[in-house]
Write a structure and sequence with these properties.
The complex is a heterodimer of chains A (about 280) and B (about 260). Chain A has about 280 residues and is mainly α. Chain A is about 70% helix and about 0% strand. The radius of gyration of chain A is 21 Å and the shape is globular. Chain B is an alpha/beta fold and about 260 residues long. Chain B contains nine helices and eight strands. Chain B starts with 12 loop residues before the first strand and ends with a helix. The chains are: A mainly alpha (about 280), B alpha/beta (about 260). Chains A and B meet through strand 1, helix 2, helix 6 and helix 13 of A and strand 1, helix 1, helix 2, strand 4 and helix 3 of B. Chain A: Keywords: Cell inner membrane, Cell membrane, Membrane, Transmembrane, Transmembrane helix, Transport.
Chain lengths: ~280, ~260
């Protein structure tokens, strides 16, 4: 009787190129947030970050990295001081949040092949999980940094709370980069092998091993092309010098992050329905 | 058997497939790379090919039906299941689904081999839109049915293919959606588990559920299905009464109904 007036719970029709209905997509994505949390948690557990030595490694690894890079700076410059070390650790730790999002994101979609082939879900959950994992690994390093800062006697100031908006911008940028690169890797699988060179180049182009003030004005002009530059510069200004960030850097950083996030999401969302046949 | 469906009566349409066509572009290389793309550009060869997986398929599945889908490898059986489950969008046509589909096709479980079976079941279920409570409520039943014992907490890379499909089938059979799609999961596992999963399928047959079973195990399909769809090269060749359709399919394959061909492969 009611068969004719029964409404289907799902209708699948051909899609035209472009975005899916965004509000519906967001609702489904939000309803699956437990997956993102649970996936990140089990990935971290898989790498033994739930054990004591695993967590110790989370702290030891960035410390060793900063020590190695500090050695490099000392050798190249011939001299160094504690302020430079504080700058190095602050920016290096944040740089690793972004770079870990990239390295985690690149395999996010291709690694989820089995799930993508057999389950209908918003594919963007996979690169988002990669950023959540990078964020979980970043959080302990904040405390390490604050400890180093205290030991070396760098004064604290209220302006340091500017770190929160800077971190938010860094997270938006990380999301944008992870989403973009996870999608590119579906079509060009060798991107993953180029990635170490890419992150290394970005590291040297960013004010991590040096302060932005030591750059020549000519170089500084080009740095507007580096999305990480204003973020790391503001981060150092806020956390090392305890000053408010420059409005212009914050705006450039925000613009870069939002543009990369929107562009990456657009590419991803308009392509994701094709992933199942591309894997 | 308790049912999660709400007041769906027999002989109502569960899935309606109208004029379904599926064409997709995929790369010729198994691993598409920039290198391969540059090479094919230099030689002027194509780097992608277009695959016509399904062509103008019309298919209605009603509640109470147990539909077996048969056909040679590459006939488009799995593609059709993925379209019905909403994993791949159709190129042409319209698919209407009335009720909850097991969007978790059997092999969705175990996407991360380094995690335990337990974690994989949880993650697969969460990705498919179940809540954590729903999964945890059923977890005991899944673990019991799969008979994996302590192995449920071992990483899935240590599983044999039989253990793997046992877990996959257990998840699919325990979730109890209105429309259950079982893709090739019946033909794996040892004789004892095969028997057990066959019995579970029989239990799941009810007037308010539609079952779609993709399998090469003709004897099994003759036993449990009340309808068979035969696909060949993306086209629905025949649809109807199990014995007649399977006979026609086997004649087509020019395989005599010997014991060997009727056995589960």
């Amino acid at each position: 009787m009611s068969a004719s007036i029964q409404t289907p719970s799902q209708v699948y029709v051909p899609f035209r190129a472009g975005l899916p209905p965004l509000i519906g997509y967001w609702k489904i994505l939000w309803s699956r947030k437990t997956f993102i949390v649970e996936y990140s948690r089990s990935e971290l557990r898989d790498k033994h970050f739930d054990s004591f030595f695993g967590q110790l490694w989370l702290i030891l690894n960035p410390l060793l990295l900063s020590a190695v890079y500090f050695l490099l700076v000392v050798i190249i410059r011939g001299s160094s001081d504690s302020a430079r070390y504080v700058h190095l650790t602050a920016t290096l730790f944040l740089f690793y949040l972004i770079s870990n999002s990239l390295t985690g994101g690149v395999k996010a979609v291709t690694g989820g092949q089995r799930l993508i082939l057999n389950t209908a879900f918003p594919r963007i959950m996979l690169p988002i999980s990669a950023v959540v994992i990078a964020l979980f690994r970043f959080l302990p390093t904040i405390f390490v940094f604050l400890l180093i800062r205290t030991i070396l006697g760098v004064p604290f100031s209220w302006q340091m709370f500017w770190a929160i908006p800077v971190l938010l911008i860094a997270i938006i940028l990380s999301l944008g980069l992870a989403i973009t690169i996870s999608c590119i890797n579906v079509y060009f699988r060798d991107i993953a092998s180029f990635l170490p060179y890419l992150t290394r180049t970005i590291l040297y182009l960013s004010p991590v091993l040096y302060e932005s003030t030591s750059l020549s004005p000519k170089m500084l002009k080009f740095e507007i092309l580096n999305p990480l530059f204003p973020i790391l510069d503001s981060w150092s200004r806020v956390l090392v010098l305890g000053q408010a960030p420059e409005t212009s850097s914050m705006l450039i950083a925000l613009a870069w992050a939002v543009v990369i996030f929107l562009l990456g999401s657009y590419i991803f969302l308009s392509r994701e329905r094709e992933f199942a046949v591309r894997l | 058997m308790p049912s999660v469906s709400n007041s769906i009566k027999a002989s109502e349409v569960a899935v309606s497939v109208r004029g379904l066509g599926l064409t997709y572009t995929t790369s010729i290389e198994r691993r598409p790379t920039i290198k391969a793309r540059a090479k094919s550009l230099g030689r002027g060869t194509k780097h992608t090919r277009v695959i016509q997986a399904l062509d103008n398929v019309n298919l209605d599945v009603e509640y109470g039906q147990v539909l077996g889908v048969i056909g040679s490898n590459g006939a488009g059986k799995s593609s059709m299941m993925r379209v019905i489950a909403g994993i791949i969008p159709p190129t042409r046509g319209r698919i209407e689904v009335f009720g909850s589909v097991s969007t978790l096709l059997a092999l969705g479980v175990g996407f991360n081999p380094s995690m335990s079976g337990r974690d994989n079941v949880l993650l697969g279920g969460l990705a498919a839109g179940m809540t954590r409570d729903q999964i945890e409520d059923r977890f005991e039943e899944i673990a019991d049915f799969s008979e994996l014992g302590d192995a449920i907490d071992a990483p899935m890379r240590t599983y044999s293919s039989g253990m793997y499909s046992r877990l996959a089938f257990s998840v699919a059979a325990t979730v109890r959606p209105d429309i259950l799609i079982v893709d090739e999961a019946l033909s794996t596992g040892d004789a004892k588990f095969k028997e057990k999963s066959l019995n579970r399928i029989k239990e799941l047959r009810s007037d308010d559920r539609a079952l779609i079973i993709v399998s090469h195990a003709m004897a099994t399909l003759r036993e449990i299905c009340n309808d068979i769809a035969w696909l060949d090269k993306g086209v629905l060749v025949q649809r109807g009464e199990p014995n007649a359709t399977i006979d026609a399919y086997q004649d087509f394959l020019q395989v005599k109904r010997s014991a060997a061909s009727d056995e589960d492969v």
